[in-house]
Amino acid sequence: MTEITHAQRALGAINNEKIDRLPTYPIACGVNRKLIGKNGVTYREWASDPKLYAEAFIQGQKRFGFDFAIGLMDLSVMAGDLGAGVKFDEENTPYVNRPIIKSIEDYEKLEVPDVKKGRSKVIIEGTRIIADKLNGKVVTSAFLEGPLLALSQSASAERLFMDMFTDPTPVHKALKVMTEFDSEIVKEIGQTGVNGLCWDYLWGNYSCLGDDEYGEFEGDIYAKRLNQETRDNGMAVAIHNCADLPHLDTQINKFKPAIYSMAYYPDIEGSLTASEVIGSGYADNCLVAGNINPQLFRRGSVETITKVTKDLCQEVKTALCKRGLNSRYCIASGCEVPPDINTKLENIEAVVKTVEKYGRLD
């Protein structure tokens, strides 16, 4: 088969077309800041400047040859813009160290901030640059925290899960605010020209919530609204969930995303392999992406990650063939490639090169 572009390959896989090889996207986001200039920039600099934020993805595509560009910053963005304290490690992912919700009354004090300020602005304006520079070369997508995840960052997961069951009314009021916050960002991102929007709906996870609980606190109301608003604003819906036991029936079969990004935990009973996900029918109408262990990019050797990638390519191709599918799988990490300074760029490159060689479908 004639070589095709990254964008053609990605779109072909989403549509289950016959393409040259499996697409690949190690979820390399913050780590790409190391490619800016001669010595890279710090995480704080990258996450505070829309031009630097976008430039990292542009340089990542130039260096590695990905098939997608998905604009993940980190999971403390919304909480930080609401006023929570965020700890910035100069070379690693920032995190909330002072939650804004410290009592049950605090849930009802939340107000939607101005999304044209703070790091929400960085994502919006940076996404505009990414879309302008990379649309047509790769499939581009912004990335947002779902309302339940954003609220857990603002309150701490331990407090939130306790309050959900002991006093759910204030929690629902806060979730409505978070959904409005997300909605305002969706409207702005919809004007950037980006191809899609990837939602992190982490708490659709059987280790934490059952179907009824997840439906009540995100899936049946808040996520349903945001998925529709994403489509109404001209973007495809993608979902990332790196939980150990994700709600696949809800988040794939019910939400109907174009892309579903997930992880695999070999030590967790019930965590599905790539072949099991495909064989269970989840890839019938959705491009599934995963499931290389992200820590291999930091701790593994080129030889190790090459073998893991080669084996995954073979597993996926065999499963697709058995299911009668042409291409609905993307070789990717199960979660973000660690953005810290010790992550090995050569391991990212090894994944792409291995897929180019062993992911052939023609």
Summarize the structure.
The chain has 362 residues and is of the alpha/beta class. Helix content is 47%, strand content 13%.
Describe this structure in words.
The chain has 362 residues and is α/β, with parallel strands linked by helices. It has helices spanning 6-14, 43-48, 50-64, 77-82, 118-134, 147-155, 157-166, 168-189, 211-232, 248-254, 274-279, 296-299, 302-323, 345-358, and strands spanning 24-25, 68-71, 85-87, 95-98, 139-145, 196-200, 236-241, 259-262, 287-292, 329-333. The chain has one domain: TIM Barrel (Alpha-Beta Barrel). It contains 14 helices and 10 strands. The strands form 2 sheets. Strands 1-10-9-8-7-6-5-2 form an 8-stranded parallel β-sheet, sandwiched between helices. The protein has a two-stranded antiparallel sheet with strand order 3-4. β8 (259-262), α11 (274-279) and β9 form a beta-alpha-beta unit. α13 runs parallel beside α14 (345-358). The N and C termini lie close together (6 Å).
